[in-house]
């Protein structure tokens, strides 16, 4: 019989209450939320009432949460400038830790987390739930049919949402993390792109801040070169005026193309068209893939569960080394924009 892991929640804000707690509660045979910590104890108490946590397991001191013998692992939902400290404390306490994205506030901190992860057997994961979308494996299974991938168009654009509860948080409005909105949300897009087509070698980008509420640049238009040799465009931003919400990637091969459209985040639409030219255009296959309601969060937790129970950190899909690359791409966007769109190499961990 598999063990039940006792979860200590570090940071009891909106996402902890609205997404992480329901996901843990979906698997009572695997997880039990037993402790909560927030530097504002009142917020931890409010979360504890919702989660059914006893008053004795409510903390405003991180050290006490880390040293709680009843806590199996730490689920940290903190402003990302505190991720490195949380990792250091968790590893010192011998407790696996799951962090919210992006990995850190800057590449220096991110490299430190990668370095720690490589010198410990304690599982460390970053919550980039887009790595776990059902549509990824389906598209990857079709890539061989379109021959050599030579190009792509990645687009995630949409209208500005004034009543956005996440954007109202102070740490997002005055970001200490590089790129602000670009790294907070952009790493999801980069996770999806790189899971499909591999790592990015270099970027030529222009970034822009459209909305004051974003706190920093919130839009990027760029050209990318992949390590595979494929080239393409990457556009990301949801600070525009009224428009449709689009999230799609078109992948162009020598023998066909694939379109993945996840604009509604419920059912991914996939279109595979084969043929090496207009004259030799062959079959067209169109179908839908249902995305699970948590949009990858549940799968992310199950992946981390497997890593903790097996004691094998290699099981972790969103490892520090993997997700470092996504933040490094955001850093490259910003550096390129400062250089008027000149090509910039993506830094390695």
TrEMBL record:
One of its GO terms (biological process) is NADPH regeneration. It comes from Eremothecium cymbalariae (strain CBS 270.75 / DBVPG 7215 / KCTC 17166 / NRRL Y-17582). Signal peptide: none annotated. This is Gfo/Idh/MocA-like oxidoreductase N-terminal domain-containing protein. Pfam families: GFO_IDH_MocA, GFO_IDH_MocA_C. GO terms for molecular function: nucleotide binding; oxidoreductase activity, acting on NAD(P)H. One of its GO terms (cellular component) is cytoplasm. Residues 5-126 form the Gfo/Idh/MocA-like oxidoreductase N-terminal domain. InterPro entries: Gfo/Idh/MocA-like_OxRdtase_C, Gfo/Idh/MocA-like_OxRdtase_N, NAD(P)-bd_dom_sf. Residues 144-344 form the Gfo/Idh/MocA-like oxidoreductase C-terminal domain.
């Amino acid at each position: 019989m598999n063990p039940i892991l006792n979860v200590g929640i570090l940071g009891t804000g909106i996402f902890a209450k609205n997404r992480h707690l329901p996901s843990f509660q979906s698997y009572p045979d695997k997880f039990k939320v037993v402790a909560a910590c927030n530097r504002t104890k009142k917020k931890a108490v409010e979360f504890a009432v919702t989660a059914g946590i006893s008053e004795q397991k409510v903390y405003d001191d991180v050290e006490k949460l880390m040293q709680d013998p009843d806590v199996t692992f730490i689920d940290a939902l903190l402003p990302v400038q505190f991720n490195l400290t949380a990792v250091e404390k968790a590893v010192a306490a011998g407790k696996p830790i799951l962090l919210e994205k992006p990995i850190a506030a800057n590449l220096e901190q991110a490299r430190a987390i990668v370095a720690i992860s490589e010198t410990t057997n304690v599982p460390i994961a970053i919550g980039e739930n887009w790595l776990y979308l059902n549509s990824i494996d389906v598209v990857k299974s079709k890539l061989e049919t379109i021959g050599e991938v030579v190009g792509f168009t990645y687009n995630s654009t949409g209208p500005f949402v004034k009543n956005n509860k996440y954007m109202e948080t102070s740490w997002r409005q005055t970001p200490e993390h590089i790129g602000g909105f670009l790294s907070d949300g952009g790493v999801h897009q980069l996770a999806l792109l790189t899971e499909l087509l591999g790592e990015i070698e270099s970027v030529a980008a222009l970034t822009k801040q459209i909305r004051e509420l974003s706190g920093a640049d919130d839009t990027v238009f760029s050209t990318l070169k992949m390590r595979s040799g494929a080239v393409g465009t990457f556009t990301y931003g949801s600070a525009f005026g009224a428009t449709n919400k689009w999230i799609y990637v078109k992948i162009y091969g020598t023998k066909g193309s694939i379109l993945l459209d996840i604009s509604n985040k419920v059912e991914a639409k996939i279109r595979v068209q084969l043929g090496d030219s207009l004259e030799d255009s062959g079959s067209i296959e169109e179908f839908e893939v249902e995305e699970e309601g948590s949009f990858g969060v549940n799968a992310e937790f199950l992946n981390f569960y497997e890593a903790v129970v097996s004691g094998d950190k290699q099981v972790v899909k969103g490892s520090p080394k993997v997700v470092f690359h996504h933040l490094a791409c955001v850093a490259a966007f910003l550096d390129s924009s400062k250089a008027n769109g000149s090509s910039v190499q993506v830094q390695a961990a």
